[in-house]
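Running this now, will post back.
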Amino acid sequence: METTKTLNKEKLIAFYMDFILDEQHSPSSVHAFAKAHKFEETEFYKYFGSLNALEYAILPYFMEHSLSLIKQSEDFDNYEDKHKLLSLYYTFFEQLTMNRSFIKLFLTSENTLFKNTKKLKPLRTQYLKFINQLDISKSKINQERLDNLRIKSVGESFWLLFLSIFKFWYDDNSANLEKTDLYIEKSVHASFDLADTKPIKSILDFGKFILKEQLNIEV
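Update: finished.
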């Protein structure tokens, strides 16, 4: 039996991922989940109130881990905002790719995940916190002050960008998912140029890329 000393949130998430990969479906109950991985059911509730709560913690766990990795760089604080965001995207989607079989299976039942984003709310909170720390609204928009509505709209626009990358990664079938890396690069450059009110070249370049990769239209 797993004991309190060895059980933690990270291990429970790993157990859950293993369960889904092995059984090809979610556990029917906390009892079944605990029994499959040989720990007491009561130990589960010290970390999560339900299986749903554990599920909601999975994507934020990957985000938290990615943030920890990129901040290990001694130069991270000196990076430009664009470089920080690129670092996060590359690292986060690299982590997802390392667990792609699980992520694809985990999200398969959520056919409307990118429209009905309840399970993405914890991830969204983490992401927007990171965006606000970048202070993009002040460094990239030619205004001395922005009211709360404008600041919110900047955060939301970057969240939509993140979702578009997530969906592209999810559908990407290219070798080494190299098209996702290209999509990340083009979308981030375009979004920062747009925020800096110099959008034409990057926006057109990004638009052409989307037309080619998602609609199979050459321009």
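Residues 139-151 have pLDDT under 50 and may be disordered. More later if anyone needs it.
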